[in-house]
Write a structure and sequence with these properties.
single chain, 314 residues, alpha+beta, four-stranded antiparallel sheet, 8 helices, 64% helix, rod-shaped
């Protein structure tokens, strides 16, 4: 009851302002929630596109190394000689490291060719990466996996793709120790990186980006767009409030003032019609009511005068 009493005491202009304020806050809140989700999706999509471009570039380097560099060097090195530059994963890793140094956009990116049984122990897959490789093996038609992971105390958004041997020439270094170059055996030993099979998924290419980078870009866009949306909402609500006060509240106030004047006996007060809308119809109704009231008062006065004349004659 107390709330209803308070609401009844609020003027029409205040009620309209309160209504517009509720619309403003509700509109901004709903817009903010929807926008945050959209921006997070778009930012994630943008980073995925950058990562996809990175994958294509690194795989092009791998292909170039495998088809152009390795055959040339092997022809000049001999059967038992070995250079890391002939390994596609070595070339792709070096290109990525140079990219990180030269391009600030990729400074926070991490790239790894995580293998279940790598020649170089630095490429050994951790437990999380092993699960990804296992999933690729079980679902061979899955071209890519994305998600979030914790790494070195920080949360990362990752994109992973399967790695498998498709070129039989690679088995020269990864089949059995007696076939592998002796220089490679002397560097890495004969236990690691052996027993690989053609067309078998042995690892995963994985690019990781700190979620802080994803969130930072999304937040920048969020605050910029929300600032613009808030400004547009504020201007629209101000204009609506201004219009309602001028063309609805003020005419009604004038009608009230004239009605109060008429009710106290001031029949010279006139209702002013300023529009042809509902407010104008209200003014016409009050004008007709005033005319009817004036006519009724005149008839009453006339009736009273007629009833007094016989008494005066007597």
């Amino acid at each position: 009851m107390l709330k209803k009493t308070k609401i009844r005491k609020i003027t029409l202009a205040q009620k309209l302002t309160l209504l517009l304020l509720v619309v403003f806050i509700g509109g901004i809140s709903l817009s903010g929630i929807a926008l945050a989700k959209i921006l997070q999706y778009k930012t994630q999509h943008e980073i995925s596109s950058n990562a996809s471009l990175l994958f294509q570039s690194l795989n092009s380097v791998r292909s170039y190394t495998s088809n152009e560099v390795t055959p040339y060097l092997q022809a000049n090195l001999g059967k038992d000689s070995f250079l890391p530059q002939t390994v596609p994963s070595y070339s792709s890793r070096k290109v990525f490291e140079n990219l990180r140094q030269q391009n600030q956009e990729y400074q926070d990116f991490l790239y790894k060719e995580a293998m279940l049984n790598p020649t170089n122990i630095r490429d050994l897959a951790d437990d999380f990466e092993k699960d990804i490789v296992s999933d690729f093996r079980q679902n061979k038609n899955t071209p890519e996996k994305t998600g979030f992971r914790n790494f070195q105390g920080e949360k990362y958004f990752y994109i992973a793709r399967p790695l498998k041997i498709t070129d039989s020439s690679c088995l020269r270094c990864h089949s059995t120790p007696d076939v592998a170059p002796q220089d490679m055996i002397s560097i890495y030993g004969d236990k690691n990186g052996m027993g690989w099979q053609l067309n078998q998924i042995n690892g995963t290419q994985i690019v990781s980006i700190p979620t802080s980078e994803v969130l930072h870009k999304a937040q920048e866009s969020f605050f910029l767009i929300m600032g613009i949306v808030t400004l547009v909402f504020a201007i629209a609500i101000y204009m609506a409030n201004f219009w309602l006060r001028r063309y609805v509240v003020r005419p009604i106030k004038r009608v009230v003032l004239v009605a109060e004047a008429v009710s106290t006996g001031n029949m010279d007060a006139d209702f002013e019609q300023v529009s042809n809308d509902e407010v104008g119809s209200l003014v016409e109704a009050f004008t007709r009511m005033k005319l009817s009231l004036v006519m009724a008062i005149r008839r009453l006065e006339h009736y009273r005068l007629e009833n007094r004349e016989p008494k005066d004659k007597f």
